Amino acid sequence: MSEKEPIGVIGVGWVGLVTASCLAELGHEVWARDILADKVESLSRGEVPIHEPGLPELVAKNSARLHFTTDMAPVLEHARLLFVCVDTPPTYSGDADLSRVEAVIAELGDSDEHALVMKSTVPVGTGRSIQRRRDGLGYVSNPEFLQEGSAVPDFMKPDRVVIGADNRSGRFADRMEALYEPLDAPIVRTDVASAEMIKLASNAFLATKISFINEIANVSEELGADVSEVARGMGLDDRIGPRFLRAGVGFGGSCFPKDVQALKQLAGNTGYHFQLLTAVVEVNELQKRRTIGKLQKHLGSLVGKEIALLGVAFKPNTDDIREATSLVLSGRLAGEGANVRVYDPVAATRADEMLAGARISDSALEAVDGADAAVLVTEWPEFADLDWAEVREKMRVPLIVDGRNFLDRQALIEAGFTYEGIGR
Length: 424
Hints:
Elements: E1 7-10, H1 14-25, E2 30-33, H2 37-44, H3 55-61, E3 66-69, H4 72-78, E4 81-84, H5 99-108, E5 115-118, H6 126-133, E6 138-141, H7 151-156, E7 161-164, H8 170-180, E8 187-190, H9 192-223, H10 227-235, H11 256-269, H12 275-299, E9 306-310, H13 325-335, E10 339-343, H14 348-354, E11 359-360, H15 364-368, E12 373-376, H16 381-384, H17 388-394, E13 399-402, H18 409-414, E14 418-420
Parallel strand pairs: 1-2, 1-4, 2-3, 4-5, 5-6, 7-8, 9-10, 9-12, 10-11, 12-13, 13-14
């Protein structure tokens, strides 16, 4: 067995599996527990159920150090640091559902040898509440900042590592700091509440940048400016930076929408109205729907029109369609009477489950065959490499709405397309 401290990971979804695999890569024996027997059996065979570049290879490489189980007993026997990576979805009230976290705590009994290392995104104050109720239980807030599609390098080469703990859990925080030392990243040691807030505030700020540039895009369209040039000029200012200044049809995924709403809800629970985040959410929802207006500008009524959506996942290099713009567009197009066909190189199976009434195509060329318009929703690299002359021949109406400003506008215009971008 490795000399490095054994680790427990509870919840082997996307965050949990990335965490377990990367810690195994760092030389730790990892006991990873999930309540879904089928998932555990698949992972034990080396089968990775999610699309994340580099993750299957990492699981295979470290199979001897990765132990997947449905039983909590071996996790508690071998590991003292327990990384909690369970879901905390919003309830009907908008508050986080912490039932899975509470289930983990219940299984610990009265142990004072173990520490919960909270990777799950929880409301600010959760750690304080748990420690108040379970005096003696170690607790460390260690929020994750992984991006789908680049999660493995995000873990192995992080911008920073946040470790939140009070004095009672200082010994566990010290062990956490030693665990992350090989990553050679800045360590932010702080209190638990501040660590919890860092996660929510970070995602809320990035979402704000996206909504801001989308508002600039909408104004640019009215004034004849090109938001791509505007963003380039803004991003060169090192106080602003270029990242997350790409205009498009709105953000989605499992983190930004949930975390923005969570912080807004937390503020509201204290009686504070977070006006800025209210606007961020409103802009994002309206942005997803502006595509309908662009289509109607060229096609008039959408009743009976054939509309192809290129991309379903909320971003490239993932099969995640949670809160994806494609879900809103498909629903709104169907509501306008259009016939929707979609293609995604990875998320097609999930699309079939979520996009009721939409026709799932096996290729981009099949999706655009006979279409009155094509909307690029996800900037998969293969879409940039399409034979657009062939696409032009297949479409009934050569109309492209580039929802990510990803395609070569001039090349498409020269190929005979009517091109609509975002803020251009």
